[in-house]
Amino acid sequence: MLSVKDLWKLALILIGIFHNTQGAWLRCYNGALDNVQVVPLYKPEQLLNTTCINLAHPTVFYTFGYRGKVAGPATTSILSAYLATKKRNVVLLDWEDDASSGILGLPLGYAFSAVPSAIKIGADLGEALVKLARSGMNMTQMHLIGHSLGAHLMAYAGRHTRENGLVVARITGLDPARALFEEFAEYYLDYKQIQNMTNFEKIRTATNRNLCSHDRSWRYFVQSIVSPTDFSASYAKDYDSWVENAGRSDRTTYLGDLTNTRHLPVFKINHGLLKGQYWF
Predict the structure, then answer these.
(1) Record's superkingdom (predicted)?
(2) Tens digits of per-residue pLDDT, 24-71?
(3) Distance, first Cα to last Cα, the chain
């Protein structure tokens, strides 16, 4: 017999299948935020005919979460940080209309509009990535980044590509939304963990102070792009071993783009939509 939580998931999946989104766009930035090429999500190949894509460079796809904005501080900060490196193609998935709460208000808008939209648009983005890969873009150099609910959207995109025989090289979740979802993959969490919600009603507990904490994830990530070695970590099998060696290790990695996946432990998840192996 299905639990209440399982019934919620099933309902959201069914809503997502039949949910009509208002439209999503790929915004590709040519060196600056005010120099942008915009194409419909269902016609991603058009990007390859613009000057904003250099097939010799890796490509970063970023998206915001619930109630996020194209011109919001998280979006502009992350995009600007990557543009400043001059070593990445920078693309924003714009789903601002579908990410809004609309007339339903904050909690209902999340559950019955934004989440189903994220599921559907995530699959649509996955299909767009498949089209780009088959048109010449190197999928081993793709990096998907999502903040909050946008992290789950990117997970659905990665799932769709895998179902089509292709694998995205890396997906980063910046403090993924917990409500109505299971755990995610690569974490950049706020220290208060306000997103560690277990049921729908707790969505209402979010406050401006909590959201400020929620923002820390993308702020840390931006700093890691600007200063790649600011946040380092040394491997140890447990705390006592770390203390005994004074934090020294021959296995060091950094938060951000310099993260070495070979130095991170791998966990197996045998349930839900995220079934498979993940490193943290």
Answers:
(1) Eukaryota
(2) 999 999 999 999 999 999 999 999 999 999 999 999 999 999 989 999
(3) 32
Write down the H helix ranges in 64-206: 73-85, 96-99, 106-109, 115-134, 149-163
Helix (H) or strand (E) holding 268: strand 266-269
CA distance linking residue 217 with residue 228, whole number of Å: 15
* Residues 208, 63, 185, 110, CA torsion sign: positive
Cα separation, 196 vs 199, whole angstroms: 10
In degrees, rounded to 5, the angle at the alpha carbon of residue 158 between the alpha carbons of residues 129 and 29 is 45
pLDDT in tens, 96-151: 999 886 666 666 777 778 889 999 999 999 999 999 999 999 999 999 999 999 99
DSSP code, position 140: G
Closest CA to 258 of 87, 48, 123, 14: 87
Residue with tokens 């938060």: 255
Q: Helix, strand, coil shares of the chain as percentages rounded to 5? A: 45, 20, 40
Is residue 233 a contact partner of residue 249, using CB atoms and an 8 Å limit?
no
* Residue 269 near residue 278, CB atoms below 8 Å: yes
What number of other Cβ atoms are within 10 A of residue 195's Cβ? 23
Type and span of the H or E element at 234: strand 232-234
- Contact assessment for residue 174 and residue 218, using Cβ atoms and an 8 Å cutoff: yes
